[in-house]
Write a structure and sequence with these properties.
Blueprint lengths: L12 H9 L2 H21 L3 H20 L1 H14 L3 E5 L2 H14 L4 E4 L3 H5 L2 H7 L3 E4 L2 H8 L16 H11 L9 H18 L2 E4 L3 E3 L4 E6 L3 H7 L3 E7 L3 E2 L5 H12 L7 E5 L13 E7 L3 H5 L15 H4 L4 H4 L10 H12 L1 H9 L6 H5 L6 H13 L18 H14 L2 H13 L25 H9 L1
Parallel strand pairs: 1-10, 2-3, 2-4, 4-7, 5-8, 7-10
Antiparallel strand pairs: 5-6, 6-9
Length: about 475
């Protein structure tokens, strides 16, 4: 199995972006995939009134859940514990991995089979287990492909969306013993299925993510299409589920609207193939299911977002990926350029809380602020507004009232501070403004032809030959 090199350094964001932009094949693949997904979503919402009503309901459910989050988390723990589920709390990725590792070592586990879980990617679960001599094997087909290739997922719903069938065929022929090269999609699926079936049988532990946690009943809901999630949570003797603390809802009746929004927004399906409801370990007389079920609830910076009234909306996310599919930036550079677990618009607003603004602030600036992400978000997260807020945080004066996050002020420089200081003085004093605008209009011939990043793809900015006040004065005379 190829080893994945974790990417967290934002210093290379521009270089990674340029690499993709200079690859016509990659750009064509992403553009085609995004167009396809946009069309699929659109076909699932033919009635605009129904769509907006459902979005309003979904947003209301998520806002209500977050408003009552502390109480719901306590209720969830009580119900799950009563159902026989072991609940663990982790503040950091290291703590989450340590909890899972302790469970694995207690039963001498050597093989863990995983369903799709973005939180496990977030904490780099596979690397932590590998370091302890335990194999963590991906069973989702897309995740299996990127693990085999030694890569990270490039999309939160479709991890291998950046791969063509020819690339996958070559990968399977090189990495899977006894497999001949074939570009037949059905044959490739069967190859993956044969490998994965053996892994389910050999696994000591199954690990999964969670889409929704229901506090009222102590139920873990898992949405999937391949059946691997169901295999991971029923075949091994131990099931470990891991999720962020924000995924809780109060009642079971809150799940169907969110489920409908998730499946229709993510993959353009009315419903997914499987919807699993897990409320505890195997009971006496039952024929299948794990003997133990554990839930790890992860913070990892989420409480920072929760503490801020505006940024709390970030936690409404149901991980559908619609914002990525409609983002003109993501469609051109793909997920790997971002260098974070969650790419695209949602990654730009959640990564500063998970990794710190100091290492992720360029992502907030990698946006046209066109508003497409906010318009398609099924739970109405005001992503553009939050992007602007994060830009302001990155430029804030340290320890000022505008600096509230970890890493605030990281993008602030002496030169920028001086420039904006002069700008503030000029625009707040009428006399200075008149004088400055006069000099700019008369000296327009001296405008530089190279203006940094602006002129890489735009014409230079040149002041008008006459100011507006001059034009009005001429009209009156």
């Amino acid at each position: 199995m190829s080893k994945v090199i974790p990417i967290h350094v934002m210093d290379d964001f521009k270089e990674r972006s340029r690499t993709v932009l200079n690859d016509p094949g990659q750009r064509k693949n992403f553009r085609g995939a995004m167009d396809f997904l946009q069309a699929k979503r659109k076909s699932q919402f033919p009635d605009q009134e129904e769509r907006e009503g459902l979005r309003d309901l979904g947003a209301a459910i998520r806002r209500y859940s977050l408003a009552h989050l502390p109480r719901l988390l306590e209720q969830l723990e009580q119900k799950l514990t009563a159902n026989g589920v072991h609940v663990h709390w982790a503040e950091t990725p290291d703590q989450a991995n340590a909890i899972a590792l302790a469970i694995a070592q207690r039963v001498n586990a050597r093989h863990i089979v995983k369903g799709k879980s973005m939180v496990s990617e977030e904490i780099e679960f596979n690397h932590a287990m590998e370091a302890a001599g335990i194999e963590a094997f991906e069973s989702d087909m897309g995740e299996y492909i990127v693990q085999l290739a030694g890569e990270k997922p490039s999309h939160i719903i479709m991890p291998a969306i950046h791969k063509t069938k020819a690339q996958i065929a070559k990968l399977f022929a090189e990495e899977v013993p006894g497999v001949a090269y074939t570009e037949d999609v059905d044959a490739l699926i069967q190859i993956g299925r044969r490998v994965l079936r053996r892994k389910f049988a050999d696994a000591d532990i199954g690990l999964s993510g969670v889409n929704f946690c229901v506090a009222e009943t102590g139920t873990l809901c898992l949405v999937e299409n391949e059946g691997n999630g169901r295999m991971c949570t029923t075949v091994p003797k131990i099931h470990i589920a891991i999720t962020g603390i924000e995924k809780v809802v109060e009642k079971l009746e809150h799940v169907p609207p969110l489920y409908s929004l998730l499946s229709r927004s993510a993959t353009g399906q009315a419903v997914t193939t499987y919807f699993n409801l897990i409320s505890g370990p195997r009971k006496p007389g039952e024929l299948d299911g794990p003997e133990e079920v554990h839930l790890i609830l992860l913070d990892n910076g989420r409480t920072q977002a929760y503490a801020d009234e505006q940024l709390r909306a970030t936690l409404q996310c149901i991980r559908c990926g619609a914002c990525m599919n409609h983002c003109p930036v993501y469609a051109r550079i793909g997920g790997h350029a971002y260098g974070t677990t969650y790419p695209g618009p949602i990654g730009a607003i959640i990564s500063p809380h998970l990794l710190g603004l100091e290492s992720t602030y360029p992502l907030a600036f990698a946006s046209t602020l066109c508003g497409a992400c906010g318009e398609v978000c099924p739970v109405k997260i005001p992503i553009p507004d939050i992007l602007v807020r994060l830009r302001n945080e990155a430029m804030a004066q340290p320890e000022s009232e505008d600096a509230t996050l970890r890493g605030s002020g990281v993008a602030r420089t002496v030169a920028a501070t001086a420039v904006w200081g002069v700008w503030s003085q000029v625009y707040s004093r009428l006399g200075l403004y008149k004088l400055a605008s006069w000099f700019m209009s008369r000296g327009r011939a001296m405008s530089p032809s190279e203006q940094g990043a602006w002129t890489r793809s735009r014409t230079p900015l040149v002041p008008a030959p006459k100011r507006l006040r001059d034009l009005l004065k001429d009209r009156k005379s």
